[in-house]
Amino acid sequence: MAKAKSAVKTIVKTGINKPNPLSFEIFKLLNQGFTPLAIAKSPRLNIDHVRMVKKATDSPTKLRAKFMDRLHKEEMEQQAKLRRVADVPGFGTIAVTPEEDEAMSKLANATQVGGTHYKDKKLQPWDAIAAWDCGFLDGNVIKYVVRYRSKGGVEDLKKARHYLDKLIEIELEGLK
Q1: What does the pLDDT read at residue 84?
Q2: What is the torsion angle, in degrees rounded to the nearest 10, for the CA atoms of residue 145, residue 149, residue 151 and residue 152?
Q3: Would the N or C end of the chain have less CB density within 10 A of its end CB?
């Protein structure tokens, strides 16, 4: 507690000309709509320092510009940590961290609807299709070829050929 008070005294004595972490935290709270009095209730702060930060950042100053740049950078870093994921049942599109996304993927891979023809595979076809950035047609070719021995036999190979024929047709039309 004594350390925090001495740190605040040092900051108050040196003024607010230099951006320091404590001043930036106060600026963030002020930016979120907290009143100086509410912020000053923290044991780390006193009202004088909060007032100095508010006064120094209310008008356009170099300090305010530095703080705004830093705030923008933090927001961008936070957004970079998040990734949009669509089609989460019951939630629609949500933002998750890469770790949460990996956990959701493992959960989806642990469940298979309509059989067990992918369970014995080291790599799920949909993971390979996504990793290779395949389209709908070539993704289906891969899917049917991978599963034909354990599910549909020759019928799945015919389905793969059907998708492959359509893919060839589209490619040939693109050459015209």
Answers
A1: 55
A2: 70
A3: C
